[in-house]
């Protein structure tokens, strides 16, 4: 086997797979190291609910045969109300989607080594020159990319990863059947992706139902380990407990059960501003840095965009007559990340923290506001537009906002808005 490559990528998820796909198409020698055995891939890493939108499908040429269900609407729920917006989407078969990415990258010329657990970087002085895996195996590269997710074995050792436990989101997802998708008093969830804001079910987070055809859906709960979670969480209750509590109390699940043979998906991501995302000859992409959409948790599109931004940065570094893999040359990656992958990240994180700390009755009022306002207000607010955000605020929110601001000023790390 070759032990010298232009680029070595650790991790074959959406970010790593897309980055390999793009770079191999440009005739670079690319190696992807993936922890899981190929015969089981992706078993341990099949952790996404996999809801996405047509913009991602068209931007990356994703075929329809990896789609479980096309959807026509997005439904937001509060404890006592809901809001429905017509918006096309797709719920992917995430395992099939990841295998498709591998096949695409291979067809373009990328090499994959499965059952290859990354242990750390190979260093010459202060610069990374390769990757150590499976104990003492080594491969060298001009540029190394960490796409391993929160474990971040390369980024952590290089001091690039800044993931903090208090910003970690923890989620669980079941594939279920027998769900009443149009129960009286709730929104119609046929061909829909639904997100519910309700601290009784997900303190400091949200829950979801994504229709996957007939009476089946992906059903999950996620919470961020934030102040509202610490305040509202029931002592000793785990993510599994909150999931079971929802299934026991929501009438839509009265006759529902987990699909036989269906896996219970567990995952985590970090909701925070990224710190440094690159250094000499190295970039961290996908969930190795906090790439997930902070407000609604959509990660596939963001991860693939970050992989594409890293591929552009590799081109920028390796195409000159005298290749330059310095941190200064690779800084185009961070520029693209902030301009295209996650623009207005600080505003969106601010809105995220305020949203998930709001009390339940405020969620009911949010649904009333969304039903009153034009269809685009939510989209603009979701994109961090301050004028749209102001339309969703009320004078009665001022005490809660002032209290939130005081807590942030007392936080010495100022972690929600690092400069």
From TrEMBL:
Domain Digeranylgeranylglycerophospholipid reductase catalytic as annotated: residue spans = 190-245
Stored InterPro entries: Dggglyphlred_Halo, FAD/NAD-bd_sf, Geranylgeranyl_reductase, GGR_cat
Q: Does the keyword Lipid biosynthesis apply?
A: yes
Query: Which Pfam families does the record match to this protein?
Result: FAD_oxidored, GGR_cat
Q: Name one GO biological process term.
A: phospholipid biosynthetic process
**Keywords for the protein's UniProt record, in alphabetical order:** FAD, Flavoprotein, Lipid biosynthesis, Lipid metabolism, Oxidoreductase, Phospholipid biosynthesis, Phospholipid metabolism
Under Gene Ontology molecular function, one entry of this record is: oxidoreductase activity
> What protein name does the entry list?
Dehydrogenase (Flavoprotein)
Native organism is: Natranaeroarchaeum sulfidigenes
Q: Gene symbol?
A: fixC3
């Amino acid at each position: 086997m070759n032990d010298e490559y232009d680029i070595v990528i650790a991790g074959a998820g959406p970010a790593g797979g897309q980055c390999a796909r793009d770079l191999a198409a440009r005739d670079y020698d690319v190696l992807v190291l993936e922890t899981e055995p190929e015969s089981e891939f992706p078993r341990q890493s099949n952790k996404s609910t996999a809801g996405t939108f047509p913009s991602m499908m068209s931007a990356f040429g994703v075929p329809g045969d990896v789609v479980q269900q096309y959807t026509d609407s997005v439904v937001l729920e509060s404890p006592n109300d809901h809001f429905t917006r017509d918006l096309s989407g797709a719920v992917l078969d995430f395992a099939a989607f990841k295998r498709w990415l591998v096949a695409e990258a291979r067809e373009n010329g990328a090499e994959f080594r499965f059952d290859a657990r990354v242990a750390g970087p190979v260093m010459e002085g202060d610069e990374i020159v390769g990757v150590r895996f499976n104990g003492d195996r080594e491969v060298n590269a001009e540029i190394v990319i960490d796409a391993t997710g929160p474990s971040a074995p390369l980024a952590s050792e290089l001091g690039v990863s800044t993931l903090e436990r208090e910003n970690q989101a923890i989620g669980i997802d079941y594939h279920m059947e027998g769900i009443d998708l149009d129960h009286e008093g709730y929104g119609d969830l046929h061909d829909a992706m639904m997100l519910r804001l309700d601290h009784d079910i997900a303190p400091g987070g949200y829950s979801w139902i994504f229709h996957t055809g007939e009476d089946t859906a992906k059903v999950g709960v996620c919470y961020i380990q934030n102040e509202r979670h610490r305040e509202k969480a029931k002592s000793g209750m785990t993510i599994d407990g909150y999931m079971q509590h929802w299934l026991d109390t929501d009438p839509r699940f009265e006759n529902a059960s987990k699909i036989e043979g269906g896996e219970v998906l567990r995952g985590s991501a970090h909701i925070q501003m990224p710190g440094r995302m690159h250094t000499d000859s190295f970039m961290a992409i996908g969930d190795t840095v906090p790439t997930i959409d902070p407000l609604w948790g959509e990660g596939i599109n963001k991860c693939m965009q970050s992989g594409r931004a890293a591929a552009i940065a590799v081109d920028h570094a390796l195409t000159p007559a005298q290749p330059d893999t310095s941190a200064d040359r690779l800084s185009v990656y961070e520029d693209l990340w902030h301009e295209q992958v996650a623009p207005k990240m600080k505003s969106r994180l601010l809105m995220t923290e305020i949203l998930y700390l709001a009390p339940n009755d405020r969620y009911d009022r949010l649904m009333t506001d969304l039903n009153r306002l034009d269809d685009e207000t939510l989209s603009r607010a979701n994109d961090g537009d301050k004028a749209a955000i102001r339309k969703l605020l009320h004078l009665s929110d001022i005490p809660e906002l002032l209290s939130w601001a005081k807590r942030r000023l007392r936080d010495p790390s100022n972690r929600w808005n690092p400069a």
